[in-house]
From TrEMBL:
It comes from Lactuca virosa. The lineage of its organism: Eukaryota, Viridiplantae, Streptophyta, Embryophyta, Tracheophyta. SUPFAM superfamilies: Nudix (SSF55811). The keyword Zinc does not apply. Residues 89-227 form the Nudix hydrolase domain. This is Nudix hydrolase domain-containing protein. The keyword Hydrolase applies. Its cofactor is Mg(2+); Mn(2+).
Amino acid sequence: MLFLLRRISSLSIATTSPLSYSAPLSRLNNMASINNNGSSSRLSVLAQQLRLYKPPPGDAEDDDEVVSQVGFAESATPVGNRPSERFRPKRAAVLICLFEGNNDGSGEDLRVILTKRSSTLSTHSGEVSLPGGKAEEDDTDDAYTATREAKEEIGLNPSLVNVVAVLEPFLSKHLLRVIPVIGILSDRSAFNPTPNVDEVDDVFDAPLEMFLKDENRRSEEREWMGDTYLIHYFDYKINGKSYLIWGLTAGILIRAASIVYKRPPAFIEQNPKFKVPGIANKDTTMP
Protein backbone atom coordinates (compact mmCIF):
# COMPACT_ATOMS: atom_id res chain seq x y z
CA MET A 1 0.00 0.00 0.00
CA LEU A 2 1.23 3.45 -0.89
CA PHE A 3 0.77 6.51 1.23
CA LEU A 4 1.82 9.89 -0.07
CA LEU A 5 4.95 11.70 1.01
CA ARG A 6 6.09 15.28 1.36
CA ARG A 7 6.56 17.60 -1.58
CA ILE A 8 9.30 19.86 -0.30
CA SER A 9 12.96 18.96 -0.07
CA SER A 10 14.00 17.88 3.40
CA LEU A 11 17.06 20.10 3.10
CA SER A 12 14.92 23.23 3.15
CA ILE A 13 13.02 22.59 6.38
CA ALA A 14 15.37 24.51 8.64
CA THR A 15 15.11 27.65 6.53
CA THR A 16 11.54 27.55 5.27
CA SER A 17 9.62 26.50 8.38
CA PRO A 18 7.78 29.49 9.82
CA LEU A 19 8.26 28.12 13.34
CA SER A 20 11.08 29.95 15.12
CA TYR A 21 12.83 28.31 18.06
CA SER A 22 14.91 30.07 20.63
CA ALA A 23 16.85 26.85 21.27
CA PRO A 24 16.95 23.19 20.19
CA LEU A 25 14.77 20.74 22.10
CA SER A 26 17.84 19.27 23.80
CA ARG A 27 18.37 22.63 25.55
CA LEU A 28 14.81 23.11 26.79
CA ASN A 29 15.79 21.92 30.26
CA ASN A 30 18.23 24.81 30.60
CA MET A 31 15.62 27.29 29.42
CA ALA A 32 12.91 26.04 31.74
CA SER A 33 12.63 27.30 35.28
CA ILE A 34 13.83 24.80 37.84
CA ASN A 35 11.01 23.57 40.04
CA ASN A 36 9.68 20.36 41.51
CA ASN A 37 8.52 19.17 38.13
CA GLY A 38 11.21 19.87 35.55
CA SER A 39 9.50 17.61 33.04
CA SER A 40 6.31 19.67 33.02
CA SER A 41 8.36 22.85 32.72
CA ARG A 42 10.17 21.59 29.63
CA LEU A 43 6.89 20.54 28.05
CA SER A 44 5.48 23.97 28.79
CA VAL A 45 8.33 25.61 26.87
CA LEU A 46 7.81 23.19 23.98
CA ALA A 47 4.07 23.97 23.96
CA GLN A 48 4.76 27.69 23.76
CA GLN A 49 7.07 27.17 20.80
CA LEU A 50 4.72 24.89 18.90
CA ARG A 51 1.86 27.37 19.27
CA LEU A 52 3.88 29.72 17.07
CA TYR A 53 3.84 27.27 14.19
CA LYS A 54 1.95 28.29 11.08
CA PRO A 55 1.49 25.90 8.13
CA PRO A 56 3.21 27.07 4.94
CA PRO A 57 0.94 28.84 2.43
CA GLY A 58 -0.91 26.72 -0.07
CA ASP A 59 -3.66 25.09 2.03
CA ALA A 60 -6.42 26.15 -0.30
CA GLU A 61 -9.74 24.67 -1.25
CA ASP A 62 -9.05 25.46 -4.90
CA ASP A 63 -8.58 22.32 -6.96
CA ASP A 64 -5.68 24.02 -8.73
CA GLU A 65 -3.80 24.81 -5.51
CA VAL A 66 -1.32 22.70 -3.58
CA VAL A 67 -2.66 21.39 -0.26
CA SER A 68 0.60 22.25 1.45
CA GLN A 69 4.31 21.98 1.04
CA VAL A 70 4.12 18.67 2.86
CA GLY A 71 1.50 16.60 1.09
CA PHE A 72 0.89 16.13 -2.59
CA ALA A 73 -1.27 18.73 -4.23
CA GLU A 74 -4.84 17.67 -3.70
CA SER A 75 -5.10 18.11 -7.44
CA ALA A 76 -2.23 15.65 -7.98
CA THR A 77 -4.53 12.79 -8.83
CA PRO A 78 -5.09 10.96 -12.11
CA VAL A 79 -7.86 12.30 -14.25
CA GLY A 80 -10.81 9.95 -13.76
CA ASN A 81 -13.19 8.39 -16.19
CA ARG A 82 -15.75 11.08 -15.40
CA PRO A 83 -13.92 14.38 -15.92
CA SER A 84 -16.93 16.40 -14.84
CA GLU A 85 -16.59 15.06 -11.31
CA ARG A 86 -14.65 17.54 -9.19
CA PHE A 87 -12.21 16.25 -6.61
CA ARG A 88 -13.58 16.97 -3.12
CA PRO A 89 -11.67 14.85 -0.59
CA LYS A 90 -13.20 13.86 2.72
CA ARG A 91 -11.48 15.18 5.83
CA ALA A 92 -9.82 13.30 8.68
CA ALA A 93 -7.50 14.18 11.57
CA VAL A 94 -4.87 12.26 13.52
CA LEU A 95 -3.38 13.02 16.93
CA ILE A 96 0.39 13.26 17.39
CA CYS A 97 0.30 12.90 21.18
CA LEU A 98 3.71 13.70 22.70
CA PHE A 99 4.90 13.01 26.23
CA GLU A 100 8.16 12.77 28.12
CA GLY A 101 9.60 9.33 28.77
CA ASN A 102 13.28 8.60 29.33
CA ASN A 103 15.13 11.70 30.41
CA ASP A 104 18.54 10.03 30.64
CA GLY A 105 20.30 11.89 27.84
CA SER A 106 19.56 9.15 25.31
CA GLY A 107 17.70 11.57 23.06
CA GLU A 108 14.54 9.53 23.45
CA ASP A 109 12.90 11.72 26.08
CA LEU A 110 10.07 12.87 23.81
CA ARG A 111 7.78 10.04 22.73
CA VAL A 112 4.66 9.67 20.58
CA ILE A 113 1.65 7.39 21.10
CA LEU A 114 0.92 4.95 18.26
CA THR A 115 -1.56 2.18 17.63
CA LYS A 116 -1.64 -1.06 15.71
CA ARG A 117 -4.92 -1.27 13.86
CA SER A 118 -7.13 -4.28 14.37
CA SER A 119 -6.44 -7.20 12.05
CA THR A 120 -10.19 -7.47 11.44
CA LEU A 121 -10.59 -4.02 9.86
CA SER A 122 -11.44 -3.88 6.17
CA THR A 123 -8.76 -1.29 5.34
CA HIS A 124 -5.16 -0.98 6.55
CA SER A 125 -5.69 -3.90 8.93
CA GLY A 126 -2.79 -4.64 11.24
CA GLU A 127 -0.91 -1.49 10.27
CA VAL A 128 0.65 1.05 12.63
CA SER A 129 -1.11 4.39 12.71
CA LEU A 130 -1.68 7.50 14.77
CA PRO A 131 -4.96 7.72 16.71
CA GLY A 132 -7.56 9.46 14.58
CA GLY A 133 -10.21 9.11 11.95
CA LYS A 134 -12.72 10.81 9.68
CA ALA A 135 -14.38 14.06 10.67
CA GLU A 136 -18.01 13.97 11.67
CA GLU A 137 -20.57 16.64 10.92
CA ASP A 138 -20.74 17.83 14.54
CA ASP A 139 -16.96 18.15 14.97
CA THR A 140 -16.03 21.76 15.64
CA ASP A 141 -12.51 21.55 14.18
CA ASP A 142 -9.62 19.20 13.39
CA ALA A 143 -8.39 19.17 16.99
CA TYR A 144 -11.82 18.02 18.13
CA THR A 145 -11.85 15.26 15.51
CA ALA A 146 -8.39 14.01 16.49
CA THR A 147 -9.01 13.99 20.25
CA ARG A 148 -12.50 12.53 19.90
CA GLU A 149 -11.18 9.68 17.80
CA ALA A 150 -8.29 9.11 20.23
CA LYS A 151 -10.78 8.74 23.07
CA GLU A 152 -12.90 6.32 21.06
CA GLU A 153 -9.92 4.25 19.90
CA ILE A 154 -7.63 4.11 22.94
CA GLY A 155 -9.51 5.74 25.83
CA LEU A 156 -7.40 8.92 25.89
CA ASN A 157 -9.43 11.59 27.68
CA PRO A 158 -9.25 14.85 25.67
CA SER A 159 -8.93 16.80 28.93
CA LEU A 160 -5.45 15.29 29.38
CA VAL A 161 -4.22 16.58 26.01
CA ASN A 162 -3.01 20.12 25.41
CA VAL A 163 -3.43 20.75 21.67
CA VAL A 164 -0.64 23.09 20.54
CA ALA A 165 -0.37 22.92 16.74
CA VAL A 166 -2.11 21.82 13.55
CA LEU A 167 0.14 20.78 10.67
CA GLU A 168 -0.29 20.83 6.90
CA PRO A 169 -2.76 18.37 5.33
CA PHE A 170 -1.55 15.08 3.89
CA LEU A 171 -3.37 13.18 1.17
CA SER A 172 -3.79 9.46 1.81
CA LYS A 173 -3.81 6.62 -0.69
CA HIS A 174 -7.59 6.72 -0.75
CA LEU A 175 -7.61 10.48 -1.37
CA LEU A 176 -8.52 11.36 2.20
CA ARG A 177 -7.33 14.73 3.44
CA VAL A 178 -5.57 13.97 6.74
CA ILE A 179 -4.79 16.79 9.18
CA PRO A 180 -2.10 16.07 11.80
CA VAL A 181 -2.78 17.65 15.21
CA ILE A 182 0.01 17.90 17.79
CA GLY A 183 -1.01 17.52 21.42
CA ILE A 184 1.04 17.30 24.62
CA LEU A 185 0.30 14.81 27.38
CA SER A 186 1.90 16.32 30.48
CA ASP A 187 0.95 13.52 32.84
CA ARG A 188 1.55 10.17 31.14
CA SER A 189 0.61 8.29 34.33
CA ALA A 190 -2.94 9.66 34.07
CA PHE A 191 -3.47 7.81 30.79
CA ASN A 192 -4.32 4.12 31.05
CA PRO A 193 -4.77 2.83 27.48
CA THR A 194 -8.06 1.03 26.91
CA PRO A 195 -8.05 0.08 23.24
CA ASN A 196 -11.32 -0.42 21.42
CA VAL A 197 -10.89 -4.04 20.34
CA ASP A 198 -12.94 -3.45 17.20
CA GLU A 199 -10.43 -0.89 15.96
CA VAL A 200 -7.13 -1.35 17.80
CA ASP A 201 -5.02 -4.41 18.55
CA ASP A 202 -2.26 -2.65 20.45
CA VAL A 203 -1.17 0.70 21.88
CA PHE A 204 2.52 1.58 22.21
CA ASP A 205 4.89 4.53 22.03
CA ALA A 206 8.07 5.38 20.17
CA PRO A 207 10.74 8.10 20.39
CA LEU A 208 9.84 10.97 18.09
CA GLU A 209 13.47 11.62 17.17
CA MET A 210 13.84 8.20 15.56
CA PHE A 211 11.98 9.55 12.52
CA LEU A 212 14.90 11.84 11.79
CA LYS A 213 17.55 9.12 12.06
CA ASP A 214 18.84 6.74 9.45
CA GLU A 215 18.88 3.83 11.89
CA ASN A 216 16.48 0.93 11.43
CA ARG A 217 15.17 2.63 8.32
CA ARG A 218 14.85 1.37 4.79
CA SER A 219 13.21 2.75 1.70
CA GLU A 220 11.60 1.57 -1.49
CA GLU A 221 11.69 3.44 -4.77
CA ARG A 222 8.40 3.97 -6.51
CA GLU A 223 7.34 5.69 -9.70
CA TRP A 224 4.09 7.50 -10.30
CA MET A 225 3.21 9.48 -13.42
CA GLY A 226 6.86 9.53 -14.49
CA ASP A 227 8.20 10.82 -11.17
CA THR A 228 10.45 8.68 -8.95
CA TYR A 229 10.25 8.96 -5.18
CA LEU A 230 10.85 6.95 -1.99
CA ILE A 231 8.61 5.25 0.54
CA HIS A 232 10.24 5.07 3.99
CA TYR A 233 9.91 2.18 6.46
CA PHE A 234 10.99 2.27 10.11
CA ASP A 235 11.50 -0.99 12.01
CA TYR A 236 10.87 -0.60 15.73
CA LYS A 237 10.93 -2.97 18.71
CA ILE A 238 9.57 -2.38 22.20
CA ASN A 239 8.63 -4.74 25.02
CA GLY A 240 9.53 -7.76 22.89
CA LYS A 241 7.22 -6.73 20.05
CA SER A 242 8.19 -5.62 16.55
CA TYR A 243 6.40 -2.93 14.56
CA LEU A 244 6.73 -1.54 11.04
CA ILE A 245 5.96 2.19 10.76
CA TRP A 246 5.68 3.40 7.18
CA GLY A 247 3.75 5.33 4.57
CA LEU A 248 1.45 8.11 5.71
CA THR A 249 2.17 7.57 9.40
CA ALA A 250 5.93 7.70 8.84
CA GLY A 251 5.60 10.77 6.60
CA ILE A 252 3.58 12.66 9.19
CA LEU A 253 6.02 11.76 11.97
CA ILE A 254 9.04 12.78 9.88
CA ARG A 255 7.43 16.18 9.40
CA ALA A 256 6.44 16.52 13.08
CA ALA A 257 9.93 15.56 14.25
CA SER A 258 11.48 18.04 11.80
CA ILE A 259 9.36 20.82 13.29
CA VAL A 260 9.94 19.87 16.93
CA TYR A 261 13.68 19.30 16.62
CA LYS A 262 14.15 22.00 13.95
CA ARG A 263 16.28 19.94 11.62
CA PRO A 264 15.73 17.81 8.50
CA PRO A 265 16.03 14.01 8.57
CA ALA A 266 19.44 12.39 8.18
CA PHE A 267 18.31 10.69 4.98
CA ILE A 268 17.20 11.80 1.55
CA GLU A 269 13.43 11.77 1.23
CA GLN A 270 13.25 12.14 -2.56
CA ASN A 271 9.72 13.43 -2.86
CA PRO A 272 7.71 13.95 -6.07
CA LYS A 273 7.23 17.48 -7.41
CA PHE A 274 4.34 17.53 -9.83
CA LYS A 275 0.75 18.68 -10.16
CA VAL A 276 -2.05 17.65 -12.49
CA PRO A 277 -5.63 18.94 -13.00
CA GLY A 278 -7.95 18.78 -10.01
CA ILE A 279 -10.36 16.21 -11.38
CA ALA A 280 -10.58 12.61 -10.21
CA ASN A 281 -12.87 9.63 -10.19
CA LYS A 282 -14.22 9.11 -6.66
CA ASP A 283 -12.95 5.52 -6.78
CA THR A 284 -9.41 6.58 -7.70
CA THR A 285 -6.60 5.41 -5.39
CA MET A 286 -2.88 5.79 -5.61
CA PRO A 287 -0.72 2.79 -6.62
